[in-house]
């Protein structure tokens, strides 16, 4: 049933700008990083070896990708839910023989899936840029696949509470200004969270910083809290009358 | 109550309170299989709220709903599988074309793909199937809504104000469409409206709701009986004529503007006329006056009803 809902959801976002956003996000992030390299190329300190080049590159992209991810998830969640709000389609969808919790799960999964696609693209674009940079610097070495995947997917997983939160807010509120504001404020908070907040503050997790210097702790906490937020949201959605 | 056929929709003391106001109050609907049930009431009477509860979109504050002899709370999915609905203004995805709109719903229903062309043909949108729906007229959107409702081959079709906001030609078209449905596919239809005239031509049963309470529920013929005519007499000095007729035992009524006699056979009317002529009244007119269903509806729903 969930697959059917997801396939219907994918059909509904046909010809919508959301796909463009999914592409533009990672493209913009890697493009910006490429621009930074291009501007500094002449007086840049040449990295000692390929490994150093990759780690510089990935941390640079990572720090740009983080705010993009946090604002992107709010916008994507709002757009996927907005399809129903705009044309008052909730009453139609929910009068169909589908479980309300599945409808909610469908919206969450669609948002998570679109962001996942963005992360895959981010990894791909990073790879292409890294290879190009390496060859133009004359540095040859193996591609740090693990690092690349960590850069692309750890923050995504650690941001799961916010994906769930934004999906929930966007689905239950007709006025999308509210969830978008929450998303923007969240992004700003997360920009400063790294150094100032204690480890338990979820806004710190997507940056993968904690006192144990173990990114997986942030990822684990994110996935766990994400699941909790998702379940709470789903419960509330099921209980509520449809507008 | 419909006794001859099986009851498909039955509500028992259905009540909904919203923000301290009782929007639907103790409604007992009974809709039999094959009925075209006209659910009437002025705007704000509780029609849409009732329908939302029937579809499981809203929870009743109290009362029970049984559809196909199943409790909506326990077997919502099993019920909705056999129900097609169109609630208020049409819901659609404007950036998609008609076929894609239907496909989005079809994927959820798991209906066969061929069904899309069938329902498009029923609502005569085959020609427009590839156009984005946002460019559709309201009438076409409403037809697409009906097509969506028909997609799952429903046994019960719930249409909430399907002609709202349409021009006369659009209303006519939707009405013809709805009238043709039960004959072709044997479905039961619940159709709500704030206009009696709209429903009276197709409904077999009527329920009238006002201020959240169901004030009438019966066959359309019973409503028509109530609307039966009276004989109006145009005479010189009607007040004196009224007293004369009363003194002879005729059921005359005088409301200070017109003199009327309730249903009477030809002989009684002849008697009345000859009695008036003999008493030197001048008889200008003897005419039958039909109370419109509309006026009965207005009477029932109260004068403040907006029609």
TrEMBL record, chain A:
<feature type="transmembrane region" description="Helical">
    <location>
        <begin position="17"/>
        <end position="39"/>
    </location>
</feature>
<dbReference type="Pfam" id="PF12730">
    <property type="entry name" value="ABC2_membrane_4"/>
</dbReference>
<feature type="transmembrane region" description="Helical">
    <location>
        <begin position="59"/>
        <end position="83"/>
    </location>
</feature>
<keyword id="KW-0472">Membrane</keyword>
<feature type="transmembrane region" description="Helical">
    <location>
        <begin position="178"/>
        <end position="197"/>
    </location>
</feature>
<feature type="transmembrane region" description="Helical">
    <location>
        <begin position="217"/>
        <end position="238"/>
    </location>
</feature>
<feature type="transmembrane region" description="Helical">
    <location>
        <begin position="153"/>
        <end position="171"/>
    </location>
</feature>
<keyword id="KW-1133">Transmembrane helix</keyword>
<keyword id="KW-0812">Transmembrane</keyword>
<feature type="transmembrane region" description="Helical">
    <location>
        <begin position="104"/>
        <end position="133"/>
    </location>
</feature>
<protein>
    <submittedName>
        <fullName>Permease</fullName>
    </submittedName>
</protein>
TrEMBL record, chain B:
<dbReference type="InterPro" id="IPR027417">
    <property type="entry name" value="P-loop_NTPase"/>
</dbReference>
<dbReference type="InterPro" id="IPR003439">
    <property type="entry name" value="ABC_transporter-like_ATP-bd"/>
</dbReference>
<feature type="domain" description="ABC transporter">
    <location>
        <begin position="9"/>
        <end position="236"/>
    </location>
</feature>
<dbReference type="InterPro" id="IPR017871">
    <property type="entry name" value="ABC_transporter-like_CS"/>
</dbReference>
<protein>
    <submittedName>
        <fullName>ABC transporter ATP-binding protein</fullName>
    </submittedName>
</protein>
<keyword id="KW-0547">Nucleotide-binding</keyword>
<keyword id="KW-0067">ATP-binding</keyword>
<dbReference type="Pfam" id="PF00005">
    <property type="entry name" value="ABC_tran"/>
</dbReference>
<dbReference type="InterPro" id="IPR003593">
    <property type="entry name" value="AAA+_ATPase"/>
</dbReference>
<keyword id="KW-0813">Transport</keyword>
<dbReference type="GO" id="GO:0016887">
    <property type="term" value="F:ATP hydrolysis activity"/>
</dbReference>
<comment type="similarity">
    <text>Belongs to the ABC transporter superfamily.</text>
</comment>
<dbReference type="GO" id="GO:0005524">
    <property type="term" value="F:ATP binding"/>
</dbReference>
């Amino acid at each position: 049933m969930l697959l059917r809902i997801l396939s219907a959801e994918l059909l509904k976002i046909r010809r919508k700008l959301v796909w463009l956003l999914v592409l533009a996000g990672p493209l913009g992030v890697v493009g910006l990083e490429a621009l930074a390299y291009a501007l500094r190329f002449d007086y840049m300190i040449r990295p000692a070896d390929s490994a150093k080049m990759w780690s510089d590159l990935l941390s640079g992209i990572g720090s740009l990708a983080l705010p993009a991810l946090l604002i992107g998830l709010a916008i994507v969640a709002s757009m996927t839910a907005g399809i129903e709000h705009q044309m008052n389609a909730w009453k139609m969808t929910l009068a169909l023989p589908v479980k309300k919790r599945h409808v909610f799960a469908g919206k969450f999964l669609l948002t998570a899936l679109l962001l996942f696609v963005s992360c895959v693209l981010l990894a791909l674009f990073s790879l292409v840029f890294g290879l190009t940079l390496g060859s133009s610097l004359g540095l040859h070495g193996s591609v740090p696949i693990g690092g690349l995947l960590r850069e692309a997917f750890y923050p995504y997983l650690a941001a799961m509470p916010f994906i769930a939160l934004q999906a929930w807010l966007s689905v239950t509120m007709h006025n999308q200004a509210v969830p978008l504001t929450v998303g923007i404020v969240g992004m700003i908070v997360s920009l400063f969270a790294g150094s100032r907040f204690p480890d338990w503050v979820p806004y710190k997790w997507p940056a993968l910083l904690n006192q144990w210097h173990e990114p997986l702790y942030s990822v684990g906490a994110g996935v766990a809290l994400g699941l909790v937020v998702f379940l709470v949201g789903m419960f509330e959605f099921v209980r509520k009358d449809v507008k | 109550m419909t006794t001859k056929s099986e009851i498909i929709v039955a509500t028992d003391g259905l009540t909904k309170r919203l923000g301290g106001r009782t929007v639907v109050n103790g409604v007992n609907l009974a809709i039999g299989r094959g009925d075209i049930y006209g659910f009437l009431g002025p705007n704000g009477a509780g029609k849409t709220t009732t329908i939302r509860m029937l579809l499981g979109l809203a929870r009743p504050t109290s009362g029970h709903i049984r559809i196909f002899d199943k409790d909506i709370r326990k077997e919502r999915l099993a019920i909705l599988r056999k129900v097609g609905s169109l609630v208020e203004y049409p819901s659609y995805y404007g950036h998609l074309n008609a076929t894609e709109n239907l496909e989005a719903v079809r994927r959820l229903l798991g209906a066969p793909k061929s069904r899309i062309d069938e329902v498009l043909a029923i609502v005569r949108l085959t020609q427009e199937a590839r156009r984005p729906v946002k460019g559709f007229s309201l009438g076409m959107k409403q037809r697409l809504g009906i097509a969506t409702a028909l997609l799952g081959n429903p046994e019960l079709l719930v249409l909430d104000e399907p002609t709202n906001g349409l021009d006369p030609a659009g209303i006519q078209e939707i009405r013809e469409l709805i009238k043709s449905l039960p004959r072709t596919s044997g479905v039961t239809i619940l159709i709500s409206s704030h206009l009696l005239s709209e429903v009276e031509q197709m409904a077999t049963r009527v329920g009238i709701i006002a201020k959240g309470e169901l004030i009438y529920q019966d066959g359309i013929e019973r409503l028509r009986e109530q609307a039966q005519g009276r004989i109006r007499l145009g005479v010189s000095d009607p007040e004196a004529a009224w007293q004369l007729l009363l003194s002879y035992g005729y059921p005359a009524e005088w409301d200070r503007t017109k003199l009327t006699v309730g249903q009477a056979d030809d002989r009684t009317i002849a008697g009345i006329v000859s009695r008036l002529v003999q008493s030197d009244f001048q008889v200008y007119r003897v005419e039958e006056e039909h109370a419109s269903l509309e006026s009965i509806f207005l009477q029932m729903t109260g004068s403040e009803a907006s029609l």
